[in-house]
Design goal:
The chain has 309 residues and is an alpha/beta fold. The protein has helices at residues 3-15, 18-25, 29-43, 59-87, 102-115, 129-137, 184-187, 200-211, 225-233, 246-249, 281-292, 295-299; strands at residues 48-50, 54-57, 91-97, 119-124, 143-147, 156-164, 166-171, 193-195, 220-222, 239-242, 255-259, 267-274.
Length: 309
């Protein structure tokens, strides 16, 4: 069995099209098909349902995809480990983050890139918490930054990074803009734009509103914190955003940020990696940075500047 044949199977599973799978592997379509047939012959089971076009993988094929992901991830981890011993850590570090935490990822990537200048970093910053865990288990990312308020399965390791707190972001002329704090029941009466209900960040906010005995009715929903800032900037809407994003954008001109009042339940955010041995050299290096960097002291305080109550 050749590792290349497993790469063909993963490409077909991902692309769901023979020609696109071949293109992603930089081979001809006949070469990809022949490699898959040889893999089927060696394993003694059909892996692909064939017709006039791609019709999906067989149940056996779906199971082999899981093994292929693990085997190829181990191959890549071994190459990274050997490379680190020879010339220092190199390769690609893939990080996934929930939208509310994506601004905090820079607090990790900056010291990581300084310590490991040969590593290229790729960040997917608009994932749900469930998608992060799924991608970790399928070896599509090396680490995730997400909420830790619910206990994760034993298959994952976590490093707490900071506690997420919230501010009301509104036009500076709004009646609530210059209070010391804003009550959740008062915020619920505003014309709100919030993250979509499928996002963990929105679910956290809904729990805060529920604890205050109110239910928000946002007029606009999005999957991007940056889009929330843009909507508020238009002058008609207010939003509740993670305090950490004020360290990214500050408070734009004409807007005001006010801390949310009781209940002030903060939500832990942390780094998540797979609990596997041997651990990926890239994941291990990022975990070391996360443990040695005091992100909380920066992100858990309100930055100073205009527009802050």
């Amino acid at each position: 069995m050749l590792l290349r044949q497993l790469e063909y199977l993963l490409a077909l599973s991902r692309e769901r099209h023979f020609a696109r799978a071949a293109q992603s592997c930089h081979v001809s379509q006949p070469a990809l098909s022949e490699g898959l047939r040889k893999l089927e012959d060696e394993l003694g089971v059909p892996l692909v349902r064939r017709g006039h076009k791609y019709e999906g993988l067989t149940p056996e094929g779906e199971r082999i995809v899981v093994w292929a992901q693990r085997i190829l991830a181990d191959r890549d981890a071994m190459k990274s480990e050997v490379g680190a011993l020879r010339t220092g850590l190199s390769g690609k570090l893939r990080i996934g983050a929930v939208p509310t935490a994506s601004g905090a990822v820079a607090q990790l990537t900056a010291p990581f890139c300084t310590a490991h200048p040969l590593v290229f970093v790729e960040v997917a910053a608009d994932l749900t918490s469930d998608e992060i865990l799924r991608r970790l288990q399928s070896f599509e990312i090396d680490a995730g930054v997400t909420y830790l308020h619910q206990e994760l399965p034993a298959a994952f390791r976590t490093v707490p990074l900071y506690e997420e707190r919230y501010v009301l972001l509104s036009d500076a002329s709004d009646r609530l803009a210059h209070r010391a704090t804003v009550a959740w029941e008062d915020a619920a009466q505003l014309p709100l734009c919030l993250l979509g209900p499928e996002m963990a960040g929105r679910q956290v906010l809904d729990a805060q509103f529920a604890e205050a005995g109110v239910l928000p009715s946002p007029r606009i929903e999005t999957d991007s914190v940056a889009a929330l800032f843009a909507q508020v900037r238009a002058g008609r809407w207010a939003s509740i955003v993670p305090q950490t994003w004020l360290h990214v954008f500050g408070v734009p001109y004409g807007m005001c940020a006010v801390p949310m009042a009781e209940p002030t339940r903060s939500v832990p955010v942390g780094l998540v990696t797979l609990a596997r041995e041997p651990e990926s050299a890239l994941a291990r290096a990022l975990t070391g940075i996360a443990r040695d960097t005091d992100i909380a002291s920066t992100l858990e305080r309100l930055p100073h500047g205009p527009g802050l109550a």
